[in-house]
Amino acid sequence: MAAVLEVFDKWKAFLGDRVQAAEKAGFNDESIAQIAFQIGGFLADKVDPENKEERVLKELWDVADDQERKAIAKVMVKLAKNNA
Question: What is the CATH topology of the domain spanning 2-82?
Fold first, then answer.
């Protein structure tokens, strides 16, 4: 997974593939966004950003409240869908 995090375009494609897999498994958009919210929290707490884009996302996540973090997660799901 570390190699995926090194290049943001690869990261977006990786997320897009995962969103498609979740949709095929029957998850709806709200469920996918909730999972993205949980993953975002894990990444913010446990993973050091590998590039400037991830650093920006982490900084936004760190200053956001839960409602704003859920919005970030939903936007990331949309971004992932566009890159699938």
Answer: Cytochrome Bc1 Complex; Chain D, domain 2 (1.10.760)
Contact in structure between 36 and 76 (CB atoms under 8 Å) = yes
d(Cα 22, Cα 63) in Å, to the nearest integer?
Answer: 28
Distance, CA of 77 to CA of 15 (rounded, Å): 8
Using the structure block, give the residue that is written with the tokens 């090194």.
Answer: 6
Share of the chain above pLDDT 70, in %: 92
pTM above 0.90, yes or no: no
What are the C-alpha distances in Å from 11 to residues 15, 24, 66?
Answer: 6, 20, 23
Which residue's structure tokens are 């975002």? 40
Q: What is the pLDDT of residues 47-71, one digit of tens each?
A: 888 888 889 999 999 999 999 999 9
